[in-house]
Amino acid sequence: MPIVALDRAIAAARQGQPIAFPTDTVPALATLPTHADVIFQTKQRSHDKPLILMASTIAELWQFTQGTDRELAIWRSVAERYLPGALTLVLPAADLVPAVMNPLGTKTIGLRVPDCEIARSLLQRTGALATTSANLSGAPPLMTMTEISNTFPQVFALQLATDLPSSGQPSTVIQWHQTGWQLLRSGTVNVSDLD
Question: How much is the pTM?
Fold first, then answer.
């Protein structure tokens, strides 16, 4: 598909088609959570690598998690400190998470709110989207909408006046366990002080 304006990208996303847009880390490939199989097919991604949910605010994402009141308080505290930003929280998933997002039955869900105004503006209008980096599985992230459009002609890539400077680094990923946080992937956000 050609590189498209914001309204066309939003319309495509609402119809369950794959779109691409910039974030504060690397550009995202995204679709409605119920159409997440499109991303696995497009990226040639293994089903043992779950997708994450991205939204314009963390408030939109809590409904996809389940935890005790104490856990929710801890998660909210971390989210208030680091989000929007380059941090992905992997938390216990609620039944609301479509099975197609975690085809192997993973009982967790990754959540992220990007520190990128264009991304949040788009997400505000589409609702939470299933996302991953825009690249073929195992290949380096594609950093411009032109590269994405050339590699994935079936994806509606968001037209930009200029390619936004992304850090090029993936988000830091931390997973919650009953005893605390586990670092799954280092990124630009330093969470070494979390218990």
Answer: 0.94
